[in-house]
Design a protein that fits this description.
Elements: E1 2-5, E2 26-30, E3 34-41, E4 45-50, E5 56-61, H1 66-75, H2 77-89, E6 102-105, E7 108-116, E8 124-126, E9 129-134, H3 139-173, E10 181-185, E11 192-194, E12 199-203, H4 211-224, H5 232-241, H6 245-258
Helix pairs in contact: 3-4, 4-5
Length: 268
Amino acid sequence: MFEFLLPPKLRRKRKTPSPRKTHSPERMSIPEGLDFTLQRDHCRTLRLTVKPDGSVLVKSPVAVPLERVLDFVRTKLDWIREKQAFFLEHRGSGTDFRERGIIHFLGRPFLISPAEKRRGSRPRLTAGRLELPCRNGTPEDIETAYKAWRMDMAKRVLGRRLARLDARARAILGDRPGHCGLSVRSLKRRWGSCSAQGQITLAARLIELPLPLIDYVICHELCHLRHMDHSPAFHGTLMRLLPDARKREQDIRIWSLEHPQSRQENRL
């Protein structure tokens, strides 16, 4: 995302706080062949974002003339095209919850194989397939069964992985940051989080990723036990635990684009 700071004379000073007002989004285009959405509000900077679906959003202060907004967009055309090409290259179609649809476990693909649901029957991974006991085998039923299995597996796999990496972090850093608790939830927008009380929350869908990327997320949250921000100290600690942390972070972004949560969601 690009930001352009306005000169002081174009900034509006507020004497008293007032509700943040926004204008209705406008569809705009420039002769260079780019369409984008313009959103005006009381922000202080010009901001430009390329979304994973390739669309472009520009946010502008109300005081900025339209021609200046258009000039700003033109100066970023190369960057916009580069981002759109990147997202197009890595765009995935999402999971198709039907028989022989593909799910991932620790980065490996498995075919969905619905099975008759009987008393005591349980899902199992075997020979490149995930056998899922289902009531009727509809996509909705398969998705429900899969997410229940994923949650159960995530609690076991991520719990063991967190304990191992926590011990490794203490040995490398030579400290004891305090209590480290774990909660596994069906997070939609984040891979994980860490509270000031030392409670780490991880997304159940994390077990779909390759193990090195799972380790990156867990180490990221373990570093938040020591630094509750993304300061240089935080990144320095993370690099001590994972010297290739920056590459793993980029790999997670690419994985998220190539493996969206559903066929309708093509973004990270």
